[in-house]
């Protein structure tokens, strides 16, 4: 048995190397979620990278294999590079410095906010971009369907507190149905039985007794149901489509606070059609380029401190770099090469997510409110009589837009500030006094004004409802 120990040793060493191999392999293996990676890539990297083709940085399809083949580096290097490429270059890392030189010494942003798992997710996506994108889109679709179902359920229930009322209503209905079923059952038994046993007779009597006894209760139950149904229908009409607070993520992180607040750009510089018609419209990228041909980086003092407080970014400078990245995204969309100062001709229109959207059967005109109604609405803001006035808490120098959209100059991401329901429109029309001195109204409503003055005396307040602001046909086609 001399061979035995040798055999054991061999087995042991094979196992050892196998383990070492598996260990080193798994060290370098990247396991991530491609769908999450797609999302992270879209928000963090598309300013400078594409999957296919060079943008500001190199294309990222198959980058894991590429850095292995070209630079002999792996997962650990990629993590260090993405987290802080400058620090990596500073260590004298040969490959990092090589690609920096090769790309014209263009600085890549640092991403200290990305976790190891985030980076693995992104790298998984770049290894198989199609799979990642498909998985992301499928998950998104499923989520949207879920949200739509939840919203439909909320609307039909009238939302919040009234959902409880509906449940109670259904409970009452169920009790009544069960009771009717019992009664029918007894009646059927009665007619079917050729001869009533004394037991049946007793039961039948007690049921008819029950019915007379609980007749009032039954009627009250029915009345309650009818009232619930009517109240539900009315609430439904007044409150449908409530989306207050809706704040979707936009394809470019455009801050109203930076533009309309810090920079003080007039709302109508960008939303220029409000004065002239139904819609305010979203500015085209050409309008952005009036300024951004020269404003290429974010250098302002203002930044969102909460992004640092919540750990999204490490410092004020990182937040500002993020803003600069968003300006780069805009260049990419319009096909502008900021280094060469010319258009490349490759455009990808920015698809802003629409926030406010009235149903087709509603007629709303910005002109009516922003021009004819401006003075009246500004006075109502100052008097604190606009709907939701307390919560909106508008400043003294408010613009007319704020009455409905809130103080947009303090919103980084725009959100819906009011309910935008029929009940909301009507509330404001009931309480807002019309400005009879403006040219349009003094001509248009002269006769009506005289009549109202005669009827109620000089100095009566004429609110929008008095000039027809509650007529169905004014707001509905
Ligand atoms: C502000 C522009 C910018 C942003 C944003 C950016 N990069 Fe880069 N990236 C570059 C540039 C430029 C290079 C080329 C190296 C250099 O010049 O420093 C590069 C290189 C790389 C490389 C090395 C590629 C190779 O072929 O060796 C990887 C990997 C990389 N970036 C990943 C990312 C990821 C992941 C993100 C998003 C989290 C990202 N980058 C965001 C500009 C950017
Ligand atoms: C520099 C251009 C610019 C200025 C100035 C500006 N906006 Fe905007 N606004 C935009 C862009 C771009 C969007 C679309 C992206 C978004 O929703 O954030 C937008 C969206 C909106 C929306 C939502 C539109 C929707 O989808 O329903 C409202 C409301 C709005 N702006 C109101 C205002 C008000 C009020 C002011 C003035 C206090 C103002 N904006 C100033 C560019 C501007
Ligand atoms: C009386 C309330 C009211 C006032 C005042 C008002 N808006 Fe609006 N705004 C609305 C409503 C309602 C919508 C939704 C319209 C729709 O979906 O048809 C809207 C939609 C918008 C949109 C989305 C695009 C569009 O036109 O549908 C923008 C942008 C906008 N408003 C900007 C402004 C700006 C800028 C001002 C000030 C100059 C302003 N609004 C004043 C009620 C108002
Ligand atoms: C009237 C000039 C002007 C117009 C028009 C304008 N911007 Fe800006 N934008 C600026 C200035 C100024 C800054 C801040 C630069 C600074 O402080 O260093 C800025 C900053 C930004 C930033 C970084 C801060 C942030 O908001 O996230 C982005 C992104 C941006 N603009 C996108 C846009 C887009 C998109 C449009 C068109 C819808 C647009 N801008 C229109 C002047 C303008
Ligand atoms: C902040 C208050 C306010 C809100 C909210 C408001 N309105 Fe008005 N509305 C007015 C004022 C003030 C006038 C009168 C303008 C004038 O002097 O012609 C007016 C007038 C109108 C008129 C013309 C009435 C007529 O008899 O000629 C229509 C139509 C109208 N609003 C529709 C709407 C719709 C639809 C909504 C909701 C989406 C709405 N308004 C929300 C203040 C408001
Ligand atoms: C001041 C403007 C205004 C007036 C006046 C008005 N409505 Fe509306 N109505 C609206 C708006 C805005 C909506 C859409 C609300 C939404 O989408 O959240 C609406 C929605 C509706 C709906 C649909 C509710 C649903 O379930 O989708 C009905 C039905 C309706 N109105 C009936 C009427 C009738 C009947 C009158 C006359 C008594 C009337 N409206 C007067 C503004 C008005």
UniProtKB/TrEMBL annotation:
CDD domains (alphabetical): Cytochrom_C3 (cd08168)
SUPFAM superfamilies reported for this sequence: Cytochrome c, Multiheme cytochromes
Keywords (A to Z) from UniProt: Heme, Iron, Membrane, Metal-binding, Signal, Transmembrane, Transmembrane helix
Domain Cytochrome c, chain residue ranges per copy: 32-130
Parts of the chain that traverse the membrane: 161-182, 220-242
Gene3D superfamilies membership: Cytochrome c-like domain (1.10.760.10), Cytochrome C3 (3.90.10.10)
Keyword Transmembrane helix attributed: yes
Signal peptide: 1-26
A single GO molecular function term of this UniProt record: heme binding
Organism placement in taxonomy: Bacteria, Pseudomonadati, Bacteroidota, Flavobacteriia, Flavobacteriales
Protein name, UniProt field: Cytochrome c, mono-and diheme variants
Keyword field contains Glycoprotein: no
Pfam family, one: Cytochrom_C
């Amino acid at each position: 048995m001399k061979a035995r120990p040798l055999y054991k040793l061999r087995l042991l060493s094979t196992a050892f190397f196998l383990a070492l191999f598996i260990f080193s392999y798994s060290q370098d293996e990247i396991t991530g979620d491609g769908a999450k990676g797609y999302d992270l890539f879209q928000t963090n990297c598309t300013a400078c990278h594409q999957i296919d083709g060079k943008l500001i940085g190199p294309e990222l399809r198959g980058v894991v294999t590429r850095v292995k083949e070209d630079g002999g580096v792996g997962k650990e290097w990629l993590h260090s590079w993405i987290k802080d490429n400058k620090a990596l270059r500073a260590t004298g890392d040969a490959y990092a410095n090589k690609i920096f030189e090769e790309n014209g010494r263009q600085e890549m942003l640092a991403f200290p906010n990305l976790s190891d798992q985030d980076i693995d997710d992104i790298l998984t996506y770049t290894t198989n971009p199609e799979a990642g994108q498909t998985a992301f889109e499928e998950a998104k679709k499923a989520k949207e369907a879920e949200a739509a179902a939840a919203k439909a359920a909320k609307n039909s229930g009238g939302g919040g507190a009234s959902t409880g009322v509906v449940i109670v209503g259904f409970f009452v209905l169920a009790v009544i149905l069960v009771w009717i079923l019992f009664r029918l059952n007894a009646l059927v038994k009665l007619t079917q039985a050729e001869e009533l046993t004394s037991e049946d007779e007793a039961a039948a009597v007690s049921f008819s007794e029950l019915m007379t006894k609980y007749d009032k209760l039954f009627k009250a139950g029915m009345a309650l149901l009818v009232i619930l149904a009517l109240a539900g229908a009315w609430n439904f009409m007044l409150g449908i489509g409530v989306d207050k607070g809706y704040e979707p993520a936009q394809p470019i992180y455009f801050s109203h606070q930076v533009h309309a607040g810090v920079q003080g750009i007039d709302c109508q510089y960008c939303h220029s059609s409000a004065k002239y018609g139904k819609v305010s419209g979203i500015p085209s990228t050409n309008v952005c380029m009036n300024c951004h041909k020269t404003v290429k980086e974010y250098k302002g003092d203002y930044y969102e401190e909460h992004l640092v407080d919540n750990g999204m970014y490490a410092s004020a400078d990182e937040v500002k770099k993020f803003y600069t990245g968003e300006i780069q995204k805009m260049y990419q969309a319009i096909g502008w090469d900021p280094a060469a100062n010319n258009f490349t001709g490759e455009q990808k229109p920015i698809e802003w997510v629409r926030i406010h959207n009235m149903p087709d059967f509603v007629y709303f005109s910005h002109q009516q409110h922003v021009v004819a109604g401006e003075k009246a609405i500004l006075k109502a803001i100052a008097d604190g009589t606009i709907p939701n006035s307390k919560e909106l808490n508008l400043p003294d120098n408010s613009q007319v837009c704020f009455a409905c959209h809130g103080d947009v100059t303090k919103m980084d991401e725009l959100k819906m500030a009011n309910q935008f329901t029929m009940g909301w429109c009507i509330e404001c029309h009931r309480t807002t006094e019309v400005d009879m001195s403006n040219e349009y109204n003094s001509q248009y409503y002269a006769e009506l004004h005289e009549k109202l003055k005669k009827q109620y005396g000089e100095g009566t307040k004429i609110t929008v409802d008095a000039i027809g602001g509650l007529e169905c046909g004014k707001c509905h086609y």
